[in-house]
Write a structure and sequence with these properties.
6-stranded mixed sheet, alpha+beta, 8-stranded mixed sheet, disordered N terminus
């Protein structure tokens, strides 16, 4: 596992683009001067590599060679002494795993001693798992070596001024060394353990460790990594294999001792430990034997637990006097946040300064986003600078944590938001949120041999189950589910949730894994960091009704459950990362009679180093917005000056269009001469074939395009873009446009807020009644059908009850009942002195709805006036005849007479001045019986007579 420190090189995200750089030059220069003024000088450094022989073991007389590199800042000398840092690597790693960390600390002015722990790489000895007699005593001998260096600052003879930093295996060493040697001045243990026995044998109801559930996945990786002389598996060593420096592999030959190396060096001493049992590799015999016993049975004996606790800080925390910064990762199925919590409480009880920092990474999550690793680096430097270098104010004991906040477009990666509070609340949080669960008792099967097993807590990929989803992660028949109702508000979980379960088993024992999923409205389930709570229950009854409830403490998490999401508690019988009973059996599990308790914490967000540039960009955007506002204000002011006069002839007329023409640069003429008026109380239909110029006329009317010639007056005001008189018009032109993530009602409210008019003038109730959306008005508009969007757009156009309503195809997408209702709405709308202009291709609806009509063809008006007058001019007649086909042949021979389409069973004939009696006589002479002759008085007939049956317009654009 790479420590957060090494991944946290502070980088500055500069805005790209010439304009952005030019606009922010002054701010960037100021920021650069500030950084230059406050940032410490970064001297260079030199390195010395050597094999140091130290004497350790129970009696302190067993020699072992340790492969070391000493980083010494330039200028450090006996006259200019510097503080020191012992830098320990993770399990399976070497001194090269932490080289980037060492260089970073040396650049800050610290002398850094990095070494390869015994049993790894080129160092000798065997692996004792941070045993106080071996690895910890090795660390003490390295302190002796530092104290003898003339360049190292000391507090007393043989007492170097030193801090110890390490991640995972190295973090355990830092804690144990501080407890064993009071010369240590400060420590920064990262992603490490409190109780190694509990880490590998967890039991989440507080039971004895000897009955814990064996974490076989991680244990196998540990012992596999220690079973060879190489650098071990990537991810535990502190750096991945790809991060090992080129030219310095762990298997390379030993380097030459550096000139002037300190005491403790014994050239020619052995560099490897005894290998012993091949199955143990470089592990000490007692460690290997304990592992083999646990791995074979899945259960721990007391001797194995005692051995693991010998290498655990849990029993010696009261001896730690060195100020401690505990950094722990939330994405960690190996050493979860529980371990840091136990360390913090144990050390603080002794009065030692302690600070706790959680971050989004861990053994399963790496160093986390850059913003997170930068925060960890800052905290580490601040801690060492004060307690080791003696510089800067006391860091205090603030508690910090972080949560993934989203994607940073500037950094092209995830970004974490950090939070701070003045005290450490522990895993219980400040307050608890109780969420009820539902679900009956359910039988769950333990598979024979533990296979197949659920996928949730895999080493290095504990969050994999969140990608797989419920069924793929949890095997059908092997888990029970209990779910909550959707949450009414978001909950920020910070700490360990708890829940009570009951279980029954015919064998009297059960091993289960309890997990808490976050389920979104679409059913997608997320298991935060793949964390599970293993539970071994004993003394169970055969029926669940007789079972006593037990409280399960789930792993601590930092996770936001959004409003509308549900919680799902899963109790499974298997997990890939753990050893489970091999005998098949069936348990019964109940958890629906108790809520899950979620811890919450009150904290303040921490600004990130990217905040400066976000403020710069925000300032630039604000300047752009201000500039646009100024431009719009100037344009509107100019238009207001132009529109200050009112044409006296049209002062009371909602709309007057005079000699309107619209031509395009390519010579195309969409509207050549349109001239009409709309008066109060009128519903005017704008009619014409496709391409006649209707939509272009409406676009010009609404200011969406500029006319080539002509003028438009609204209540006497000449219409120009931005004219205030536009506020007296409501419109639906070229289809509705809404924000898809908002509900229909919220879209209407947002539109009205943008108008700046008083809220009480909106008349929402009437508009919503017109829309007829019912409860759908509360749904997000991205889920609307075309007809629903059309109805919402009509309601939006009617908000504020404008004096002139302009609608383009308002019935598009509406069903017949809604069309009929729209007809009544428009007629009622015009009764109070308001006016309506509607464009439609449904001539029957226009005839029933409109009081007046304007017929446009090829960009010109061919008829206008009251609908009844236009219909009255129609020369068409409906003939009911005995033989329509024969009658059509006769009528086609008559000059000027033509048969119109859509006769509805008869023939609609345009006599064009020919007497009806003459037409009837011709049909009778041809032997066609005429049953009925009815004058045709439909707008459709008049329309066809005016524009022609096959008329084509000039083509709207």
């Amino acid at each position: 596992m790479r420590s957060p420190l090494s991944a946290a090189r502070i980088r500055r995200a500069l805005p790209t683009g010439r304009r952005a750089v030019a606009a922010s030059a002054a701010v960037a220069l100021l920021a650069g001067l500030v950084v230059w003024a406050v940032w410490p000088d970064r001297p260079g450094f030199r390195t010395e590599s050597a094999m140091l022989t130290v004497r350790s073991g129970p009696d302190g007389d067993e020699p072992v060679d340790l492969d070391t590199t000493f980083y010494l800042p330039d200028g450090a000398s006996a006259d200019r002494k510097v503080p020191a840092v012992l830098l320990a690597h993770g399990f399976g790693g070497t001194k090269e795993s932490v080289r980037a960390d060492a260089e970073d600390l040396a650049g800050r002015g610290y002398a850094v001693l990095a070494w390869t722990a015994r049993g790894f790489g080129r160092s000798g000895g065997q692996i004792h798992l941070d045993n106080p007699d071996y690895e910890v005593r090795d660390g003490q001998r390295l302190l002796d070596w530092l104290a003898a260096r003339p360049e190292i600052r000391t507090d007393a003879e043989g007492d170097p001024r030193v801090g110890v930093v390490g991640g995972s295996y190295g973090g355990g060493l830092a804690l144990l060394l501080a407890a064993q040697d009071q010369r240590v001045d400060a420590i920064v243990p990262m992603i490490t353990w409190n109780d190694l026995a509990r880490s590998f044998l967890p039991e989440s109801t507080g039971g004895e460790t000897t009955r814990g559930v064996f974490k076989s996945g991680w244990a196998g990786i540990f012992f596999g990594g220690g079973g060879n002389t190489g650098s071990g598996p990537a991810g535990l060593s502190g750096n991945t294999a790809a991060e090992q420096p080129e030219g310095a592999p762990a298997s390379a030959g030993p380097p030459s001792p550096a000139p002037g190396q300190g005491p403790g060096t014994a050239p020619g001493a052995p560099t490897t430990g005894a290998i012993g049992d091949p199955s143990c590799g470089r592990f000490a015999a007692d460690v290997c034997a304990a592992y083999l016993r646990i791995a074979a049975t899945g259960r721990a004996d007391q001797a194995a637990v005692d051995l693991l606790r010998r290498s655990s800080p849990a029993g010696v925390l009261d001896r730690i006097a060195a100020p401690t910064l505990l950094v722990q990762g939330a994405a960690d199925t190996l050493f979860p946040l529980t371990e840091a919590d136990a360390n913090a409480r144990g050390i603080a009880a002794n009065g030692t300064p302690v600070r706790v920092a959680w971050f989004t990474g861990g053994h399963d999550g790496g160093s986390g986003p850059r913003s997170d690793s930068d925060r960890v680096k800052f905290l580490t430097a601040q801690w060492l600078d004060h307690y080791v270098a003696g510089e800067g104010a006391a860091p205090g004991d603030d508690f910090t944590f972080s949560r993934i906040a989203g994607f940073d477009a500037m950094d092209r990666g995830l970004v974490a938001t950090g939070y701070r509070r003045t005290d450490y609340p522990g895993l219980a949080g400040d307050a608890r949120r109780e969420v009820a669960l539902a679900g009956p008792p359910q039988p769950v099967a333990n598979p024979p041999g533990g296979n197949p097993a659920a996928i949730s807590s895999l080493p290095f990929a504990g969050s994999l189950s969140s990608l797989l989803g419920g069924v793929a992660g949890d095997i059908p028949g092997q888990h029970a589910r209990f779910e909550s109702e959707p949450l009414t508000e978001a909950v920020d979980v910070v700490g360990s949730p708890t829940v009570r379960i009951r279980a029954a088993s015919a064998t009297g024992e059960a091993v289960v894994f309890v997990k808490l999923y976050d389920v979104d409205p679409q059913g997608g389930a997320t298991l935060p960091s793949g964390l599970v709570a293993p539970v071994r229950l004993t003394g169970l009854p055969e029926t669940v009704d007789a079972a006593q409830p037990v409280t399960v403490t789930l792993p601590a998490i930092v996770h936001r459950v959004e409003a509308g999401h549900r919680l799902r508690l899963v109790v499974a019988t298997s997990d890939q990362a753990y050893t489970t009973p091999t005998a098949p059996t069936v348990y019964t599990v109940a958890a629906g009679d108790a809520p899950v308790s979620l811890p919450t914490v009150t904290a303040t967000p921490i600004p990130t180093e990217a905040a400066l540039w976000r403020w710069v960009l925000a300032g630039l955007l604000a300047a752009i917005v201000v500039g646009l506002v100024v431009v719009v204000a100037v344009v509107r002011r100019r238009h207001r000056r132009q529109d200050s006069s009112i044409h006296p002839g049209y002062a009371g007329t909602p709309l007057a269009v005079r000699n309107l023409r619209k031509a395009y640069a390519d010579g195309f003429v969409a509207v050549s001469n349109v001239d009409f008026e709309v008066h109060p109380g009128q519903v005017v239909g704008l009619l014409g074939p496709n391409g006649a110029g209707k939509t272009t006329t409406l676009r010009v009317l609404m200011g969406l395009t500029q006319p080539t010639a002509g003028e438009i007056y609204v209540f006497g005001h000449r219409l120009v873009p931005g004219s205030p008189v536009l506020s007296r018009i409501g419109s639906l032109v070229e289809g509705p446009g809404f924000l898809p993530h908002l509900s229909g009602l919220d879209n209407l409210r947002a539109y009205w807020r943008a108008t700046g008019r008083p809220w009480e003038d909106a008349h929402f109730d009437q508009a919503l009644e017109i829309a007829g959306l019912g409860d759908s008005v509360h749904r997000k508009t991205r889920k609307y059908s075309h007809g629903m969007r059309q109805r919402l757009a009509i309601a939006q156009a009617m908000l504020g009850l404008p004096e002139l309503l302009v609608l383009d195809e308002p019935t598009d997408g509406l069903d017949p009942p809604q069309i009929a209702e729209m007809r009544r709405v428009l007629q009622r709308y015009a009764t109070d002195g308001r006016a309506v202009l509607v464009s439609s291709h449904l001539l029957a609806e226009v005839e029933q709805t409109c009081t007046h009509a304007v017929v446009v063809n090829k960009g010109r008006i061919v008829a206008s006036g009251p609908v009844e007058e236009i219909v009255g001019e129609s020369p068409s007649v409906l003939f009911d005849v005995s033989d329509p086909d024969a009658a059509r042949e006769v009528l086609d021979r008559l000059e000027g007479v033509r048969v119109l389409p859509d006769g509805e069973g008869g023939l609609v004939v345009d006599t064009n001045g020919t007497a009806r009696s003459e037409v009837v006589a011709e049909l009778v002479r041809a032997g066609v019986g005429v049953d009925r002759v009815v004058p045709r008085r439909r707008l459709e007939d008049a329309f066809l007579a005016l524009v022609g049956e096959n008329s084509r317009g000039s083509g709207d654009r």
